[in-house]
Each structure stands twice: as C-alpha cells, then as structure tokens.
Design goal:
This protein has 81 residues and is of the alpha+beta class. The protein has one helix and two strands; from the N terminus they run E-E-H. A two-stranded antiparallel sheet has the order 1-2.
C-alpha cells in the first residue's frame, strides 16, 4: 500500500473565550474592560480602564495637598491689608 510520510497538517479552530478581570486591589473589573482587535497586529486585545478605587487612593494625596495649599492661600489673603 502506498503511504505518505511526514505530512504536516495545520488546523484552525475558532473559539469564544469568556474571562473575568480583577484589579490588583481585588476589585472586579468586568465593567471596566473592553475587548477588540489591536490596530497594528489585528490580534485580540483586552483594554482595561483603571479601577476607580485605585484612582481614588492614588489621587487622594494630591487632593489633600491642594486643600492644604488652598487653606494657606486663604490665610495669606486674610493677612493682607
């Protein structure tokens, strides 16, 4: 019987993948995540927006400093004749 040896066969399978995304702080991020194909490589890509909890914790020191400076400015204005 004739035979072919070392025949390489490539197959392609299409699947749907459902996954969950969590921030490093533990917050569930599914509402902050979008999937799309990348512009350059046309490959699947997940885009995750920052977690609101982390944004708040990272910007709080800046908001505190702004409040402190506003208070100093108000005090300086009171001292002006």
């Amino acid at each position: 019987m004739p035979t072919f040896k070392d025949i390489e066969i490539t197959t392609s399978v299409t699947v749907d993948i459902e996954f969950e995304v969590f921030c490093s702080c533990g917050a569930h991020m599914c509402n902050e995540t979008d999937t799309r194909n990348s512009r350059n490589r046309n490959a699947p890509q997940a885009v995750v927006s920052p977690c609101q909890k982390c944004i708040e914790s990272e910007t709080q020191p800046l908001r505190d400093r702004i409040e402190e400076l506003e208070q100093l400015l108000a005090e300086a204005r009171e001292l002006q004749p």
